[in-house]
Specification:
Blueprint: H1 2-14, E1 18-20, H2 36-39, H3 42-50, H4 55-58, H5 65-73, H6 83-96, H7 108-119, H8 124-132, E2 134-138, E3 155-156, E4 158-160, H9 162-166, H10 171-181, H11 188-204, E5 209-214, H12 225-238, H13 244-265, E6 269-273, E7 275-276, E8 290-291, H14 301-306, E9 312-315, H15 319-331, E10 335-338, H16 347-360, E11 366-367, H17 379-400, H18 406-424
Parallel strand pairs: 1-2, 2-3, 4-5, 5-6, 6-9, 9-10, 10-11
Antiparallel strand pairs: 7-8
Helix pairs in contact: 1-17, 1-18, 6-17, 10-11, 11-13, 12-13, 15-16, 16-17, 17-18
C-alpha cells in the first residue's frame, strides 16, 4: 500500500542525523527559556494578529511571559487549521509530554508549567538537539559579531551581509564596520580592506557561508571603481539623505565585492530573493514583509555568469519563481535550489516545489530544507513536516511511478537532506 511505503521511507529518512543550513539561532541562547519564546515566533503572532488579536495586546509593554502565552493560546482557535499550529502541538507532545490535540484556556497553564520545568534544565539545548536529530546548525551572524562564546562546530557561523549592501548609508552601520575592523572608511580602498577583514575573521572562526536577503527590485551589476568612489563620497557626506542613485550604486558595488570575496575564500553565497519590506507597517514584529511575484532570476543572470566558481544556493518565495529556479539550476552549474522559505513553507507548496526540483535538477544540486528557526525547538516539527512530504514524493513518483527500489529512493532522500549540505558547504 502507498501509505505503508510512505511510512517506511519516512522512518528511514527520520533516522538520519541532520545539519540545518540556515537558522536565526542565537548561539549564546539557542533554546527557549520559556513557552513565550516559542509562541512569540512571528508565525504565531502574525497569524493571531491577522485573525483579530490587536497588535497592542500582543506587544504590550511589560507583559510577562506567562501572560503572553495565555493571551495567545486563548486566541489561537482561528489558526488551528494551519500547519504552524500543528508544529506547536508536535513540539508540546514531543518535548513536554502533552497528549491532547488542542491547547486552549482549559489546559494551557499545565503545559506552560511542564515546558518551564524542562526548559529550566541546564542541558536543555543539548536535549533538544539530540531529540530533534540535529548535529549542527548554521547561524545568521551580523558582520560585527565577535563569534565568541560558543562551539562553532555545532553552531556554524554564516556572514549575513544585508546591512553592508543596503544600509551602508546609515552612519551607525559605517561606525560598526569601522569599530569591528579597526579600519577608517575614508576611501573605497579602505572599504575593500574592511570587507576582506570580515571574511578573514569569519572563515578563521569556521564560517561556511555568506548570506543575504534581496528585494525584488535589486539587479546585481559590476560597478567601475571611479563610479563607486564617487558614490561613497556622497554617502559619507549625506548619509541616508544621499541620492537614491548613489545608494543603489554603492549597494551594487558592495554586493559584487562580497561575491568576489566569496570566490576568493571559497564560500557559498546564499541568496534569498524577493522580499518586500514593510508592506504592512501595522503588522506585528517580523510580520510586516511580503514577497513580490514580479521578481525574476534574469536579474541575476550576469552574476551567475560572472562567478562560475561561486556556489549560489537560492531561496525563492513562490512556486512560479520555483519553476524559474529549477530551470536555472538545470543549466547553471553554480545555481543550487535551497529549501522552502517563509511563505512557501507550507505542505502544499513544498510538495509541488519539491517534486518539480527532484524531477528536473541534478541530485547533487539540491538542498532539501532548512528550518529558518529562531529557537531550537522548531527544528523537530519543521523537519518532520518536510521529511513526510519528501517520503510521499519519493514513494509516489519514484518507487511507484518509476520502479525505483526503496533503497535507491532512501539514498536519494538522504542526499537531499544531508549529503549535499556537506559537499556544497565544504563540511
Amino acid at each position: 500500500m502507498p501509505t505503508d511505503l510512505r511510512n517506511r521511507l519516512f522512518e528511514e529518512l527520520d533516522s538520519l542525523v541532520l545539519i540545518d543550513p540556515h537558522t536565526h539561532i542565537d548561539a549564546l541562547s539557542p533554546a527557549s527559556r520559556d513557552l513565550s519564546e516559542i509562541l512569540g515566533y512571528h508565525y504565531y503572532t502574525e497569524l493571531a494578529h491577522s485573525a483579530g488579536l490587536p497588535r497592542q495586546q500582543i506587544e504590550a509593554p511589560g507583559i510577562t511571559p506567562r501572560e503572553k502565552v495565555g493571551l495567545l493560546l486563548n486566541n489561537l482557535e482561528p489558526i488551528q487549521n494551519t500547519i504552524q499550529y500543528s508544529w506547536l502541538i508536535e513540539m508540546c507532545r514531543k518535548f513536554f509530554g502533552f497528549e491532547g490535540k488542542i491547547i486552549n484556556g482549559s489546559n494551557w497553564e499545565s503545559i506552560y508549567d511542564a515546558a518551564q520545568a524542562k526548559m529550566d534544565e541546564p542541558d536543555w539545548s543539548e536535549q533538544v538537539l539530540k531529540q530533534s536529530g540535529i548535529e549542527a546548525v548554521f547561524l545568521t551572524n551580523d558582520f560585527d559579531d565577535s563569534l565568541e562564546g560558543f562551539d562553532t562546530s555545532v553552531y556554524i557561523p554564516c556572514l549575513r551581509t544585508d546591512d553592508l549592501v543596503f544600509h551602508l548609508a546609515k552612519p551607525a552601520v559605517r561606525e560598526r564596520l569601522e569599530i569591528c575592523t579597526n579600519i577608517s572608511l575614508e576611501s573605497l580602498g579602505a572599504l575593500t580592506q574592511s570587507l576582506e577583514h570580515l571574511f578573514t575573521h569569519f572563515t578563521r572562526e569556521n564560517a561556511k557561508a555568506c548570506a543575504i536577503s534581496l528585494p525584488p527590485w535589486f539587479i546585481p551589476r559590476e560597478i567601475h571603481f571611479g563610479e563607486a568612489e564617487k558614490a561613497l563620497v556622497q554617502i559619507q557626506s549625506h548619509g541616508e539623505q544621499a541620492a537614491p542613485e548613489h545608494k543603489e550604486t554603492m549597494a551594487c558595488w558592495v554586493f559584487w565585492k562580497l561575491t568576489e570575496l566569496c570566490d576568493e575564500f571559497r564560500l557559498p553565497f546564499d541568496l534569498m530573493i524577493g522580499v518586500n519590506r514593510s508592506v504592512y507597517p501595522g503588522g506585528v514584529y517580523q510580520g510586516m514583509d511580503l514577497y513580490d511575484s514580479r521578481v525574476s532570476l534574469i536579474q541575476y543572470a550576469d552574476l551567475f555568469n560572472a562567478f562560475p566558481a561561486v556556489k549560489f544556493p537560492v531561496s525563492v518565495l513562490a512556486s512560479v519563481t520555483n519553476q524559474e529556479l529549477a530551470s536555472y539550476s538545470w543549466i547553471f552549474p553554480n545555481v543550487i535550489t535551497n529549501g522552502h522559505w517563509w511563505y512557501s513553507n507550507t505542505p502544499t507548496f513544498i510538495e509541488h516545489d519539491t517534486a518539480a526540483r527532484l524531477e528536473a535538477v541534478p541530485q547533487t544540486k539540491q538542498i532539501g530544507y532548512y528550518s529558518d528557526m529562531y529557537k531550537l525547538e522548531f527544528a523537530l516539527p519543521k523537519f518532520a513536516m518536510y521529511k513526510r512530504i519528501l517520503a510521499k514524493v519519493l514513494a509516489e513518483r519514484y518507487v511507484i511511478d518509476r520502479d525505483w527500489s526503496e533503497e535507491r529512493a532512501i539514498d536519494f532522500g538522504k542526499r537531499i537532506l544531508r549529503g549535499n549540505i556537506e559537499t556544497i558547504f565544504n563540511l
